[in-house]
Design a protein that fits this description.
Blueprint lengths: L1 E7 L5 H15 L6 E7 L2 E7 L7 E3 L5 E12 L6 H5 L4 H11 L7 E11 L4 E6 L8 E4 L4 E4 L2 H8 L6 H10 L13 E2 L4 E6 L2 E6 L16 H15 L7 E3 L5 H11 L5 E5 L8 H12 L4 E4 L9 H9 L10 H8 L7 E2 L4 H4 L9 H9 L3 H11 L2 H8 L2 H10 L7 H15 L1 H6 L6 E2 L5 H7 L11 H10 L8 E3 L2 E3 L6 H22 L1 H10 L4 H14 L11 H12 L6 H18 L14
C-alpha cells in the first residue's frame, strides 16, 4: 500500500517546496522500511511512500512536465477499446501517467479500485486531485496563501503548514455522532476529498466538480434482486484483486464480512493464512472461537491470538490514535489491537470494508428515516451537556451552533428513497470513520485488499432496498445458498450471536433475548439518569479502568489552562475524579480527546505519541 503528499505554490522556491514535501513524508512514515518516491517541478513537488513490494506510485515524464502520484488499491483500467487482458493488468504510476496523456481528467472514472491520485502539469501550472466513485480512500488538502497542500493524513498538512486550530463545529459533530459530516476534518482549513470528486488548483484558484454521485442511485425492485448475482459479482471482485503468486492473509473474526471473504477464497481454491484475535470482552472471546471453527471446517489452521488486557492504556494505543489523526470515535476501539498484530510479511491482507452495512443491514432499523435518525443521534443528548461543561461558553457556542442544520443539509442532499439513510451512512459515517481503518491505519504496515469496494459489486448492491437488508437477510441468503458449510458456525454481530436456522422456537427465543439485551444496554448507556445510577453502583470495567488511569496520567500534567477550557470547574471536578469519583469519567474522556488533539497535532511543538506518558 502507499500514501501520497505534495505541495504546489505559484513562484514557490525549490527549497520551500522540498522542505514542505519532506516534512509531510516524515509525518506519513510509520515503518522504517517504507520507501519514498519523488517528483519535483518548478513551483511544486509530490511524493509517494510505499512498501518495498508495492508497485511504483510516483512518476514524472522524461521532460519533467507532467507528474503523477497515486495511493490506495488500484486494480485495473476500464478504458474503452482495451482488451480483457489489458483491462485486468494492475497499472503502476508510470502506466497511469501515460493514460493521463491520453484521457486527461476523464481518466479517474475509468480506474477500477479505491484510490486517490494527484497530477501536475507544469505547462498550465495545474494540480489535479481525484479519487474513486465512493471516496473511501482518504486524501486531505488545504489551500493557503502559499499554495495547495495535499496528503493521505491530515497531520502531514498541519506539520508542513506550521499552524492549525480545531474546527469547533467538527468537534461537536465528532462528539455528537462519532465523526465529521461532509468534507470537514477536526482541523480548520483542512478538508477531505469528497466521493467521486476532481479538484483543480491553478494560479491560486481551486475548482471542483463531481463526476459521479452514488447517493443518487435508484432503488431496484425487490423482484430484481438475485443472491446468485450478488455472489457472482463478489467472486469477480475477489478474482480481480487476487494475486495467486503471493500468500494471502485473512484477519478472520466471527462476524459477517471476513466470513464471506473466506468462503469466496475457498471457492477459488485459495488457502490463506488465517489470523484471529479473541476479542475477549465480547461473549468471552466468541469472536476467536467462531473464527477457529470456521477455519477448521475449511481445512485451515487459525492462529488465534489473545487480546491485550492493558492495550487501552498503552503507548501503542496512542500511536493508533495519532495515525488516524485523532479521528477515533471510541477509545476502546478493537482495530487498534488489530494494527498491533500486523506486520509487512502478511501483505496482502483481505479487509471487509463496509460489507456489514451493504449486505448485513447493521446500523439500520425498521421504521424508516425517523427511527434511524433517532438512533443515529442518540449520543447527542448525552454528550452535549458534557461538552458544555468542558468548554467556555464562547467555545461551546462555536461548537454547538448549527449542528442539526448540518445534519439536515447532509441528509437533504440525498434523494428520499428507501436507501436514503444507508447512502447517508456510507457517505458520512463509513467513509469518514470506517474507511480510514484499512487505508489510513492498516496501510501503514500492510497492503489491504477491499473487495467490497468493487464498482460492479457496489453499484449493484446499493440498488437493493434497505428494507431487504434488515436482520442480515441478504447476507444470510448468500451464505446459505452458496457457502452452506459456513452456516454451521454462528455469527457475532453487534456483540450478540446470530444463528442461521430459521423458524425454530430456539432461534426465535434467541432473537427476542438479543433484542431485550440490546434495549437494556442502550438504556444504560444513553439515558443520563440511569447512567449516573449505574455508575454509582458499579466500578468501571477493567479496560475502562486502564483508560481512566491513562486519562489521569495525561491530564494530571495539565492545569486546564488552555483558553478553550472551562477552567475552574474542570479543576474542581478533576480532583473528584482523581479521588475515585467515576461519575465524571465520560466528561474527562472528552477532555482527554481535546487534550490529545492539541498535544499531538496543534501545539507549537507537537509531542509524538511515543513520547507521551502511556504505560499504565
Amino acid at each position: 500500500m502507499s500514501k501520497i503528499c505534495g505541495f504546489v505554490g505559484a513562484g514557490a522556491e525549490a527549497i520551500k517546496v522540498r522542505a514542505a514535501v519532506q516534512t509531510m513524508i516524515e509525518a506519513l512514515c510509520h515503518e522504517p522500511s517504507d520507501q519514498a518516491e519523488y517528483a519535483w517541478f518548478e513551483g511544486g513537488g509530490m511524493a509517494a511512500l510505499r512498501h518495498a513490494t508495492t508497485p511504483q506510485r510516483c512518476a514524472i515524464d522524461p521532460d519533467g512536465i507532467h507528474g503523477l502520484a497515486i495511493a490506495g488499491q488500484i486494480v485495473a483500467l476500464r478504458s474503452q477499446g482495451r482488451t480483457d487482458a489489458e483491462a485486468s493488468a494492475r497499472p503502476n504510476a508510470a502506466d497511469l501517467l501515460h493514460e493521463w496523456h491520453i484521457h486527461g481528467a476523464a481518466l479517474p472514472p475509468q480506474i477500477e479500485g479505491d484510490y486517490v491520485m494527484a497530477h501536475y502539469d507544469t505547462d498550465s501550472t495545474a494540480l489535479t486531485l481525484a479519487n474513486g466513485k465512493y471516496g473511501f480512500c482518504p486524501l486531505y488538502y488545504s489551500v493557503t496563501a502559499d499554495g495547495c497542500y495535499f496528503a493521505s493524513e491530515a497531520k502531514a498538512l498541519i506539520r508542513a503548514i506550521g499552524t492549525a486550530e480545531l474546527d469547533w463545529q467538527s468537534v461537536a459533530d465528532f462528539f455528537y455522532i462519532g465523526h465529521m459530516l461532509g468534507e470537514r476534518t477536526l482541523f480548520r482549513g483542512i478538508s477531505a476529498l469528497a466521493p467521486g470528486q476532481i479538484l483543480t488548483y491553478s494560479h491560486g484558484r481551486l475548482g471542483a466538480h463531481t463526476y459521479a454521485d452514488f447517493t443518487q442511485a435508484p432503488v431496484q425492485a425487490a423482484r430484481d434482486i438475485s443472491a446468485e448475482r450478488l455472489v457472482q459479482l463478489f467472486l469477480e471482485s475477489v478474482q480481480r484483486r487476487l494475486d495467486r503468486d503471493r500468500t494471502q492473509c485473512v484477519l478472520l473474526s466471527g462476524g459477517l464480512d471476513s466470513r464471506l471473504i473466506m468462503g469466496t477464497l475457498h471457492q477459488l481454491g485459495i488457502k490463506p493464512r488465517v489470523i484471529s484475535l479473541e476479542h475477549n470482552n465480547i461473549r468471552n472471546g466468541a469472536d476467536g472461537r467462531y473464527a477457529e471453527q470456521i477455519a477448521q471446517r475449511l481445512g485451515l489452521e487459525c492462529d488465534v491470538r489473545p487480546t491485550r488486557s492493558d492495550f487501552y492504556g498503552s503507548r501503542e494505543c496512542k500511536q493508533v490514535f495519532e495515525i488516524l489523526d485523532g479521528m477515533v470515535p471510541t477509545w476502546e476501539l478493537f482495530i487498534g489491537q488489530i494494527y498491533g498484530e500486523l506486520d509487512p510479511s502478511m501483505s496482502p491482507v483481505w479487509d471487509g470494508l463496509g460489507l456489514d452495512l451493504v449486505l448485513g443491514g447493521t446500523h439500520q432499523f425498521a421504521g424508516g428515516y425517523t427511527k434511524n435518525m433517532a438512533h443515529f443521534l442518540k449520543k447527542h443528548p448525552v454528550n452535549r451537556p458534557l461538552l458544555e461543561m468542558a468548554l467556555t461558553p464562547e467555545a461551546f457556542q462555536a461548537a454547538d451552533t448549527g449542528f442539526f442544520q448540518r445534519v439536515d443539509a447532509a441528509l437533504a442532499a440525498i434523494p428520499r428513497t428507501d436507501n436514503q439513510f444507508m447512502h447517508f451512512l456510507i457517505k458520512h459515517r463509513i467513509r469518514r470513520r470506517t474507511a480510514v481503518n484499512p487505508y489510513q491505519l492498516f496501510a501503514s504496515r500492510i497492503e489491504p485488499l477491499t473487495p467490497s469496494t468493487d464498482l460492479d459489486f457496489l453499484d449493484y448492491v446499493l440498488g437493493i432496498p434497505s428494507s431487504l437488508r434488515l436482520h442480515h437477510s441478504v447476507y444470510v441468503a448468500m451464505v446459505k445458498a452458496h457457502f452452506p458449510i459456513l452456516t454451521e458456525v454462528p455469527v457475532i454481530s453487534g456483540g450478540s450471536p446470530l444463528y442461521f436456522e430459521q423458524n425454530s422456537s430456539a432461534a426465535i427465543g434467541r432473537m427476542l433475548e438479543q433484542a431485550r439485551l440490546s434495549l437494556v444496554r442502550t438504556a444504560k448507556r444513553f439515558n443520563i439518569k440511569k447512567r449516573m445510577k449505574h455508575l454509582a453502583r458499579q466500578p468501571l470495567k477493567p479496560r475502562e479502568q486502564d483508560f481512566g488511569r491513562l486519562i489521569i496520567r495525561t491530564l494530571a500534567e495539565r492545569d486546564f489552562d488552555r483558553p478553550c477550557y472551562n477552567q475552574a470547574p474542570l479543576r474542581q471536578l478533576f480532583a473528584h475524579y482523581r479521588a475515585g469519583n467515576i461519575l465524571y469519567h465520560d466528561l474527562f474522556a472528552m477532555v482527554f480527546y481535546i487534550e490529545l488533539w492539541h498535544q499531538l497535532f496543534l501545539d507549537p511543538v507537537p509531542t509524538p505519541a511515543s513520547e507521551l506518558v502511556g504505560a499504565v
